[in-house]
Amino acid sequence: MIRLGIILMLVCLVSSTILSFTYKKTNPLILLQKEKEEKEALKIVFKEGEEFKKINDYYVVYKNKNPIGYILKFSTQGYSGPIEMLVGFDQKGFIQGINILEQRETPGLGAKISEIKYGEKEPWFLRQFKGKKTTDLNLANLNTITGATISSRAVIEGIKNKVEEFLKNQQR
């Protein structure tokens, strides 16, 4: 019985050592890939932007070295977990674009918030936000996803609240 315990302990020790080594080797690569994907997403969110300067938890978007807008990165609580996104808007508060970075919503329902239909370049759900101000963001003015009210509402309310809060703080 003691021999079996020692063998089990050795197997666990070897397994945990291999797992730890793998994590230490791959984690920097994973972080670099996420950073690269986020930089690509910035250009998707604010197509006119030429330069993106990160300041704390947001980006200032520049064109011809002049600031033309902002991009916020935040997460909001969806049905199945957090929905992490970027939202870009100009200095007057008009939304330029949205990109869902990560979500764990139910496939076929809430996951449609970031679903791109065949032949299109961006998700239909997110496209409807372009050119709107936060005052226009409500369930009456936007098409929600049938069967995914919580996910739809999470995106709408998350964007509305974060952008309004940001703009209010910028005016101070």
How does this model look, in words?
The chain is α+β, with helices and mostly antiparallel strands. The chain has one domain. It has three helices and five strands, in the order H-E-E-E-E-E-H-H. It has helices at residues 2-45, 124-127, 149-171; strands at 51-55, 58-63, 66-77, 82-90, 95-102. A five-stranded antiparallel sheet has the order 1-2-3-4-5. A hairpin with a 2-residue loop joins strand 2 (58-63) and strand 3 (66-77). The protein starts with a helix and ends with a helix.
Layout of strands and helices, then pairs:
Blueprint: H1 2-45, E1 51-55, E2 58-63, E3 66-77, E4 82-90, E5 95-102, H2 124-127, H3 149-171
Share in helix: 40-55%
User: Kindly state the mean pLDDT as a whole number?
Assistant: 89
User: Uncertain runs with pLDDT below 50, 5 residues or more?
Assistant: none
Q: What overall form do the CA principal axes indicate? A: extended
Total of helices:
3
> In whole angstroms, how far apart are the ends?
71 Å
The domain tally reads 1
Question: Strand order, biggest sheet?
Answer: 1-2-3-4-5
Which percent range describes the beta-strand content? 15-25%
Main β-sheet, in a few words? Answer: 5 strands, antiparallel
Label the structural class: alpha+beta
The helix/strand order is HEEEEEHH
Report the radius of gyration as a whole number of Å: 21 Å
Number of strands: 5
Concise summary:
Helix content is 41%, strand content 23%. It has three helices and five strands.
Describe this protein with a few key phrases.
172 residues; alpha+beta; 3 helices; 5 strands; 41% helix; 23% strand
